[in-house]
Known about the structure:
By secondary structure, the protein is an all-alpha fold. It has a single domain (3-158), classed as Four Helix Bundle (Hemerythrin (Met), subunit A). 67% of the residues lie in helices and 3% in strands. It has helices spanning 3-28, 35-39, 49-68, 73-76, 82-85, 94-112, 131-158; strands spanning 120-121, 129-130. Strands 1-2 form a two-stranded antiparallel sheet. Helix 1 (3-28) packs parallel to helix 7 and helix 3 runs parallel beside helix 6.
Amino acid sequence: xxxYDVLLDDERVQLDAFVEEYxxxxxxxxxxxxxxxxxxxxxxxxxxxxxxVKHVTWMQRVWFEQCVGGESLRALGLVRSPExxxxxxxxxxxxxxxxxxxxxxxxARKAVADLPLDAVVTGHQSGxxxxxxxxxxxxxxxxxxxxxADILREQVLAD
Length: 159
């Protein structure tokens, strides 16, 4: 194996580590909260801590199950827009939303396990992407929403 191959392996290891870190961090924002705290609306939008975890679950399913896996939103039972993905149903709980997130993460890991970063995936409506691009998009969104969640959690705990 040449040094370039080692660098590519390191890149994948690093991307996986960063994605896993943010997956855990976004879930961690629900730790020790009551159901009411997790659902509390503190901003003008529908964004709540529980809604953020529900959204990042949806987002990962879009990128890994639709884009990489080639499944349609309808077949996956997913809402069509990011805005809808924040909406909480009456039966959404910390436990159910967390379990759905963990399942989506597991499915995502399996979807990409045997694919190189340069693999072109074609399931997204906006066109072909490399797996590397998908990783970077997911990482960008996870980091952004972790920041949102940190601020909301700070506000919830200050009340």
